[in-house]
Sequence to fold (141 residues):
Amino acid sequence: MTSASDSVSSVHHTDRWYFSKEQILSSPSRSQHISHEKETSNRQHAALLIQEMGQKLKVNQLCINTAIVYMHRFFMCHSFSAFHRTKIAKACIFLSAKVEEQPRRLEHVINTAHFILTVNSTNGYKPLETSSEAYKKKLRS
Fold:
């Protein structure tokens, strides 16, 4: 049997992820003097990366949307100046794939992100060798 205090705490718990306009406008990134436009741009780039990674990893749209929600929630608690959007995007798609029961190996997530982020670079795409120092550095970062 649940008491009145249990139901109040569960309501409060679910309200944790609903943000007022004031909370959104005073996010941790904003308190670190990142402009609203720059924060919005960072969120959009992270969401686009998650979308593309999800498609290449062949997870369903629900999994991709879950990852995007995780990213937005993360950046309501942490600043873009402290955490790079691409690292968080990789972590979000990896976690959401597990939660939505479509797990992908971390190695595949890292290689997919590497491909997406380097395929259009001026240096061209160079696959990561899993035994290389560059790959081990990507795992640590």
